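Q: My labmate handed me this sequence with no annotations at all. I'd like to see what the chain might look like in three dimensions before we decide whether it's worth expressing. Could you predict it?
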Amino acid sequence: MEAATKERELSGEKAQRIVDAMRESVAKRGAAGSTFEHVAREAGVSRGLLHYYFGTKERLLVEVVRRDSEIRVARLDGPLAEAQSVDDVLEVLVSSLTDLIDNEPAFFLLLYELFSAGRRNPEIQREVGQLFDTTRSHVAEVLEAKQREGVLKLRYDAEAIVAYLFAAADGFALQALSEPSREIGAALEAGAAGARFLLAGE
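A: Here is what I predict for the chain of 202 residues:
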């Protein structure tokens, strides 16, 4: 009963304020500088409530990434469902990546922070791995649906292709955030050509 009640509370307005405050704090201070004290103050809740909901900062970061990932995937669903060609699919994927890099870089900062935390904490590593698996599976199902429609001709297993595309996107984001002045247009074009090979195979 207690676990069920806590889960209902976690999906409520206070929990969402906490998640939003952590996201904004990471954008301003970085993950390392985002303490429970900062987040509690900006969310308008007690520090003890953060400990009750999440236990540790790493668990809160996992929840931020989980909710952000769900939003990002939901944003892909509509445009991908309307895609009528490989070019349309590539446009959706590239636009989504560049929008994240330009407007919401904290999403990638959180991912990198969680990767580091997972190296020290097997439970965090397991939770992040499950999150990635869920996201990959969902996008793979979308690509398989486009293949059934005749829009795509996947050269390899859909989940393998999605894993490659995500790895490439994470790499592009890391380079872009590490060298903000560097133009990545040509690299994205090359990446899109590689993706086309995977998505339009015979």
